[in-house]
Amino acid sequence: MKNSAYIETREWLAAQRWLLPVLILTGFGLAFAIPEYGLLNKYVQLVIMYVGINIILATSLNLVNGYMGEFSLAHAGFMAVGAYTSALLTMKVLPVADYPGLFPLAVLAGGLVAAVFGLIVAVPSFKTRGDYLALITLAFLMIVKSLIENIDAIGGPRGIPGIRKLTTLPWVFFWVVMSIWVIRNFVYSKYGRGVLSVREDEIASDLMSVNTRRVKFLAFMLSSFFAGIAGGLFAHVLQFISPRVFDIIKSTDILIMVYLGGIASLGGSILGATVYTVLLELLRPSNFAALVSWLPDALFEPLNQYFIQHLGVWRMVIMPLALVLVMIFWPRGIMGLREFRWFIPKRDLDAHQHHTEHESRHDASHRQ
Amino acid sequence: MTLLTASKVKHYFGGLCAVSEFNLELQAGELMGVIGPNGAGKTTIFNLITGVYRASEGSIQFKGTELVGKTPHQITALRIGRTFQNIRLFRDLSVLDNVRIAHYAQSDYSPLEALLQIGRYRREEQRIIENSRRLLAIFHLEAMVGETAKNLPYGLQRRLEIARALAIGPELLLLDEPAAGMNPNEIDLLMEFIQWIRKEFNLTILLIEHQMKLVMGICERLKVLDFGETIADGTPEQIQNNPKVLEAYLGRGQSDEWGGRRFGRYPAGCARSGGHLRWHQGVARGFLLGRQR
Ligand SMILES: Nc1ncnc2c1ncn2[C@@H]1O[C@H](COP(=O)(O)OP(=O)(O)O)[C@@H](O)[C@H]1O
Ligand SMILES: [Mg+2]
User: Fold this and answer.
1) At CA A123, angle to CA A118 and CA A127, rounded to 5?
2) pLDDT at B249
3) How confident is the model at residue A21, as a pLDDT?
4) Which atom of ligand 1 is nearest to the CA of B44?
5) What pLDDT score does A208 carry?
6) d(CA A309, CA A284)
7) In degrees, to the nearest 5, what angle opens at C-alpha A300 toward C-alphas A320 and A307?
8) What is the per-residue pLDDT across A192-250, written as a single tens digit (0 to 9) for each?
9) Residue of B20, B44, B86 to mutate, ligand 1, most atoms within 8 A of C-beta
10) Predicted local distance difference test score (pLDDT) of residue B250
11) SS3 (DSSP) at A260
């Protein structure tokens, strides 16, 4: 009984599609109100911004790793390109001190330059798939990192300190909505279905008239564009970037969010990014210590000495292990190939609903 | 009008000559069969026509356009649809998406229109859905639009594959062993069905078969391949009485299909040709509904 009530509520909620725009508007309202009236403390605001940035990273990586079925490790590299481009623009080119309104232009430019770098991975993907392409994306990440390290004009291995804190909650929220909306539109278009068919069977896809190169190219460009956007936002929260920030660990983090949430699901990426970012924060020594402070001293002290104080190192063990465990025991992630129905265009829902109606009619005529 | 011409097409896999000196002239509206034992090079010919492989030598033209050197999607967009010997559906996608994907070349909107939901995007998507649903209804698959393709029974998967090939809007349809895995009863229904779609969709059909019964029954002209060579060409009657074919197959006697027994079992089967359609009497419908006759 409880189960059917739950299903009924869920179905009812799924049908209230008008709620989505209302929620988005409310979100915008809150994004302005929270910093304005100090509704949440600065640390929580910061975590919310990281959640938002990670949602952008996860949804955009999902395009390649989930919808297209490739395994890209390059995402932190595209993020770096966006971060450096926008940071250099706000520090050296654009007079953002006088005109803060120029900041979104810098972020946009970071996304566009990252999209151009996306070509470097898209072109090999025309000929290569699977493990080999994964290696190429890894090589790309390493090349970007060592390029940055070797260009002194952009700080080399020391990075760029003193970036202005220009990223605000409303801007993060704006880009989160944009990335989800645009990627959703792509996925439910002929190009997105082309990407899905490439994942299923590339030759058959080509033989069904899909321009496979074009759809791969679009998927990589779009994916790296939003990684670049996220990089720009990130640089202007953290206020300091260096090649080390965008290493393989960053890529792994994003991978975990995607697989934890569920591949080929935007709802999954939102959930995966949120859960993972919050977990990551809880694993900070001070937060974790506060979390387990109720333990008796006999337990707390050794835990503190051997684990909590070294969480920075433990993290490198725990998180990759989490990725492996999720991929083995929970390969479909939280959403398990499903999608928030509010995200699915009405046209697609109707097309599938027709089917259930028809079936029940069919059943009825059988029973007679 | 000649729709498809192949002249002196050769194809090698390494040292193996899979197709040698293949010539073909297919008239618009014709239904032609290509037969031959396993490994004769039949599927390779389809792959050469559709651009999966690039012919080592020779030329293939569709309505005067050279196909050799074009990519599969360019060739398919010229309205050449095909099915596969081993079903190659997009297994994890819905029945509807399988058919919608095949509308790629015919739908006309740019990536930017898609990303921002502007311009022709909505109208075209609506059109794709309507056309897909229309096709699926014709094939009695409309009750399963949301079903994942791999969950369909084998027979329905074959049917969906044909529906998907028709979503290309083809003038030329290439069917690769459509009767594979069917019993004689189902093959009868399939024959009627092929005749029906041919008329309904105005198709020219090139059909590969392994099963003699099917090709003898419906094809107007046959080509016989063996080890990549065309050993005979003509009407089913001519083929049946062709001493070269008889020698090649009756003399060999190693397999059921080609050992002569089966081959000789349908001497008068060709009388079925002529395309008498009995859709309305429910014969082709029988195939669609999977009903036993
Ligand atoms: N991709 C390939 N690489 C190498 N040899 C192939 C390939 N495809 C087919 N062949 C060979 O070419 C010959 C013709 O194969 P095929 O066209 O599939 O035969 P059929 O469809 O008539 O059974 C066979 O000897 C087969 O082994
Ligand atoms: Mg074959």
Assistant:
1) 140
2) 62
3) 94
4) 17
5) 97
6) 9
7) 25
8) 999 999 999 999 999 999 999 999 999 999 999 999 999 999 999 999 999 999 999 89
9) B44
10) 53
11) helix
Confidence band for B6, pLDDT divided at 50, 70 and 90? very high
Distance from CA of A159 to the nearest CA of B (A): 35
A149-178 per-position pLDDT tens digit: 999 999 999 999 999 999 999 999 999 999
Whether B255 is covered by a domain: the verdict is no
Q: Residue B177 belongs to what domain range?
A: 2-244
Provide the angle, in degrees to the nearest 10, between the axes of the packed helices A248-261 and A311-329. 40
B23 domain residue, yes or no: yes
The chain A residue lying nearest B134, using CA atoms, is A351
Is residue B177 a contact partner of residue B36, using CB atoms and an 8 Å limit?
A: no
Per-residue pLDDT at A353:
64
Using alpha carbons, select from A112, A247, A80, A98 the residue that is nearest to residue A164. Answer: A98
- Scanning A4-23 for CB atoms below 8 A from B yields none
pLDDT digits (tens, 9 = 90+) for A35-89: 999 899 999 999 999 999 999 999 999 999 999 999 999 999 999 999 999 999 9
Q: Using CB atoms, which residue from A185, A197, A218 is nearest to B90?
A: A197
Q: Which of A182, A209, A355 sits opposite B73 (nearest CB)?
A: A209
Confidence tier at B261 by pLDDT (50, 70, 90): very low
Q: Is residue B257 part of a domain?
A: no
The answer to whether B88 contacts A203, with C-beta atoms less than 8 Å apart, is yes
Chain A's closest residue to B163, CA to CA, is: A208
The binding-site residues of ligand 1, defined as CB within 6 angstroms of any ligand atom, are: B 13, 16, 18, 36, 38-44
Cα–Cα distances in angstroms (integers) from residue A93 to residues A96, A157, B132, in the given order? 9, 22, 52
| ipTM reported for the complex, 2 dp | 0.86
Distances (CA, A) of B278 to B114, B149, B178, B182, B281: 43, 29, 20, 21, 5
Cross-chain residue pair A359–B143, CB shorter than 8 Å = yes
CB B59 within 8 A of CB B14: no
Q: Which domains does chain A have, with CATH numbers?
A: 40-337 (1.10.3470)
Report the C-alpha gap between A240 and A246 in whole angstroms: 12
Q: Is A118 on the interface with B (CB under 8 A)?
A: no
Output the CA A213–ligand 2 centroid distance in Å. Answer: 27
Mean pLDDT for all residues in chain B: 84
What is the pLDDT at residue A270? 97
CATH number at residue B85: 3.40.50.300
Disruptive mutation site among A126, A207, A213 for chain B (greatest number of B CBs within 10 Å): A207
Assess if residue B6 is contained within a domain: yes
Question: Beta partners for B208?
Answer: B34, B176
Structural domain total, chain B = 1
Model's pTM, two decimal places? 0.88
